[in-house]
Amino acid sequence: MAKLGIEQTVRDQYDLLAAELPDQAQRKRKVLCGGHSLGGVITGYFAAADFDGDRATITDAGYNQCAGYFALDTTVSTSLADLSGNLPDDTNLPDVGLGYGVVQAGLDSGLLSRTLSAPVLLNPETMTLLGIAGLGALKDLEGEADLPRYLPSNLNIEATNRFLFAKDTAAFLSGSPSVKDFRLTNGAVLGALLDDNSVPLAFLQTSIGFFDGGPIADKNFPVANGGARQPGLYGTAYKAIPERPQGPLYTWRTYDRVGDPDDPGYRSADGTPFTGAGEEVTDVRQLARSLAEQPLDFTEQYFPTKLVTDIQLGTSPQVKKLVVHPGGLTANPVLTVLAGEGLLAGRVPPELHPVVADGYQHIDVLTAAPTQNDGRPEIVSTSLAGFARSPR
Fold it and tell me: Which residues make Cβ contacts (< 8 Å) with residue 11, sequence separation at least 6?
């Protein structure tokens, strides 16, 4: 893991493409290169890379492996600048002032964590938990969940549970009431872990519906609804939480039932609706399948720290040397699709001509249902399909 940085990542991408489609001319005509979130930066490094060690020969250059680029709630670049303010502060990343050599020595020795490891959400245990919760929702969406009661008791799980299920700072510090004190369906558990009205971290948010079945309260931790929020990290959606421990069975109202005649229309204490049909775009059942279905994980449990530190240290000679063909970033057509309520909302230059998916959160650009609540087909997939069909 200490070696799995940006250089190895783009080399793996090149080797895979060359193995699956050996004819470079076919790759240049048929392949679209792109990604989601950090994938836009990886695409930028790939486009600028040289893979035979000779910058004078360009058939091996990254940009000549692609007919075009796509960026999903990100941009094609070689910098984290566009995503600045959206990464959490608790990922235990080393201070970039240490320098590339010191950081690498720390990764090699194990003094620095080789995978992203934070007490809340960003660690192998809680990333694995998403798959388990997805399996429960996939098998029995409306059944009462027993997952919270048999989770292991350790710092990562406890901190994550408190972070997601604390109504306010006092509840976070005391741990009471805890998630184990509420009756939740499997669908409600998954919603609590990933829905934009529950999880406070914007880069993990989807729009999959809302809690139902009992009284709902404002979740005013770690920031208060309607207060001085930080949209870059926490997102803009009002946060909610079941109000009554040891009470009714809280269920999950799916995206396509929000706004139905039987919808209670839950509101914040200030009168603001927590959500509406136009803000819900992903089917929790389809998300559950993506999380649970083998053989691949949905989130990378062991995400390599070196991939992020390399990009943070992009001005160091060791990383800068990878950008051999900087013109490669603009050598091909680009499709930029932004989540309307995602990480880059309102921050992308208009000259990129982005497609904006209204109501989408950061993860929704990967997961939104084929048919939306307005009856229209899903905009990200249709935009990608249209881009693939367009002449080069």
Answer: 51
3 state SS of 69: strand
CA distance 109 to 119: 22
Domain locations in the chain as residue ranges: 6-116+306-389, 124-292
Q: CB within 8 A of 67, min separation 6: which ones?
A: 28, 29, 30, 31, 32, 332, 333, 392
What b/e sequence results for 360-371 when a residue is b if at least 16 CB atoms lie within 10 Å of its CB, and e otherwise? bbbbbbbbbbee
User: Which residue from 89, 126, 75 is spatially nearest to 301, judged by alpha carbons?
Assistant: 126
Q: Of 370, 367, 357, nearest to 73 (Cα)?
A: 357
pTM here? Answer: 0.92
Q: Are strands 355-357 and 334-339 parallel, antiparallel or unpaired?
A: parallel
Please give the average pLDDT of every successive group of 10 residues along the chain, which has 392 residues. 96 97 96 96 97 96 98 93 58 58 94 89 88 96 94 90 93 94 97 95 94 96 78 82 96 97 96 96 97 88 93 93 96 96 83 92 96 96 95 64
Q: Alpha helices of the chain — where are they, by DSSP H?
A: 6-20, 24-30, 38-48, 100-109, 124-139, 147-150, 155-165, 169-174, 186-194, 231-234, 284-292, 305-312, 317-320, 364-367, 379-389
